[in-house]
Amino acid sequence: MSNKSNTTKKKIIDSSVQLFADKGYQVITMKDICDSCGMSRGGVYRYFSSTKEIFIAMLDRDIDDDIKAVKQAIEKKVPAKVIFDNYLDHEKNAIFSDNRGLFFATHEFAFAEPEQRAYFDKRIELSVDLLGDLFRYGQETGEFKDFDISAVATHIIYFFDGLKTSSSVLTVTEEMVDQQLKIIKEMVL
């Protein structure tokens, strides 16, 4: 794919993020996305045939970026504790982000598109594997305790998923999140 094509796809996805975060998944139309990114229908349809495709591309980009960041940090021998702290900061920032409605929209998408269950199972698996890689690295360097990597990684992924989803509809305070992060750190460090 050409650089221009990648730039255009990125523009469409970037424009869609705030729409999905503000309005949810089901009410957004291709026309909304065209209006948001300032492109014609033909221009958008050249890259994506539906809001579903755009939503999946947005989710894929998110997990791909996370995987890339952690793997690069491990390859550069960044201390595991620093990588883990950055991961926790990233997740905490997401909870309080202006785009936090996106997490609720993601669950809405999962309910509206039940055939995507395997896709969501795979996303969870990738996330658990990513944390697992980080935890193994941290244990190898002696920075992390000895613990059941799979169980703790799974716990953390589901914890953040629930908290991020809840943050769009419930009052979640920074103090509450910090208390939970302290508990998570005690399991790992």
TrEMBL record:
Gene3D superfamilies: Homeodomain-like, Tetracycline Repressor, domain 2. One of its GO terms (molecular function) is DNA binding. Pfam families: TetR_C_17, TetR_N. PROSITE patterns: HTH_TETR_2 (PS50977). Residues 6-66 form the HTH tetR-type domain. Keywords: DNA-binding, Transcription, Transcription regulation. Residues 29-48 bind DNA. This is Transcriptional regulator. It comes from Desulfitobacterium dehalogenans (strain ATCC 51507 / DSM 9161 / JW/IU-DC1).
